[in-house]
Design a protein that fits this description.
Strands 1, 4, 5, 6, 7 and 10 form a 6-stranded parallel sheet that branches. This protein has 7 helices and 10 strands. Helix content is about 40%, strand content about 15%. The longest helix has about 35 residues, at about 220-255. It has about 260 residues and is an alpha/beta fold. Helix 1 (about 30-40) packs parallel to helix 3 (about 75-85). It has a single domain (about 10-230), classed as TIM Barrel (Alpha-Beta Barrel), CATH 3.20.20.370. The structure holds zinc ion. Zinc ion binds near residues 70, 71, 137, 141 and 177. Zinc ion binds near residues 137 and 141.
Length: about 260
């Protein structure tokens, strides 16, 4: 994708959040519908990543917003898709290929961890027949930064093979678990032949295999939603410039600290 920034929204589960839900996995159906209505009112159209990728590559992405859903929770099909259809939007859902029909038993940042059912292969075929796109979100939802080359290959390549086998059509997109990527993971995804990949933060340069996304949650009321939609590109550009210096500063400080601790 070229340098003109196109917003891509990142959701997980569309369900009423349990109380408390520190991992912010859920966005309530009402809030999600309000987000979609807000896009429609601004004459913006939510689309699958493959459509956005094609539109950007021919310089025709004006008015488009990428919609993505990580992990492929069952509520994507039963709650999110009906809302998307109402606005004539489409979206991409990223499935954990080795966990279809199971639950999200991988590591979460905070306790209590959410437990939610993941879509089966049959349900993902239904997702496709509703005009949505399915991408790969690794085999096991492992943190990919410290994997051996062999394991990285498995997570990136086998997830794609398994989804193609189970669903039929080509799998064009990848999504990094926890949004974590570095040069090695981005290279592995590019080498595997994916057309695009979604992360959260950009690394340094804009890269079609590490597209930054705007994380959305139930906390995003109307004002926050608008601010994130229009302000996030500036935040990401600022972060890309400042972050390398900040990291270096931290390393210098750590080296200067007394070694006694
Ligand atoms: Zn995930």
């Amino acid at each position: 994708m070229n340098s003109r920034w196109t917003p891509i929204l990142m959701y997980h589960s569309i369900a009423t959040p349990s109380d408390p839900e520190p991992n912010q996995t859920s966005t309530s159906p009402e809030r999600f519908e309000a987000h979609m209505r807000s896009l429609a009112r601004q004459n913006l159209r939510g689309v699958r990543m493959r459509d956005l990728h094609k539109a950007v590559s021919v310089g025709d992405a004006q008015g488009l917003v990428g919609l993505t859903f990580d992990d492929a929770y069952d509520d994507f099909l039963y709650t999110a898709v009906p809302v998307l259809k109402k606005f004539d939007f489409s979206a991409t859902v990223f499935a954990v290929a080795g966990r279809l029909g199971e639950s999200n038993t991988w590591k979460h940042m905070y306790n209590p961890e959410p437990r939610k059912r993941l879509l089966t292969a049959e349900e993902l075929r239904e997702v496709l027949s509703q005009g949505m796109e399915v991408g790969a979100h690794s085999m096991t939802h492992v943190e990919m930064l410290d994997l051996s080359e062999e394991r990285l290959y498995q997570e990136v390549n086998e997830s794609r093979c398994l989804l193609v086998e189970a669903l039929g059509p080509a799998v064009e997109g990848f999504c990094y678990p926890y949004g974590r990527s570095d040069q090695a993971t981005v290279r592995a995804v590019r080498d595997a032949g994916y057309d695009y990949a979604c992360g959260v933060h950009r690394l340094t340069d804009e890269d079609v295999h590490n597209l930054p996304r705007i994380p959305m949650s139930n906390r995003d009321g109307a004002l926050r939603f608008a601010a994130k939609l229009w302000g996030y590109s500036w935040y990401e550009k600022f972060r890309a410039v400042v972050h390398p210096y900040y990291t270096r500063l931290k390393m210098v400080r750590a080296a200067r600290e007394p070694q006694s601790r």
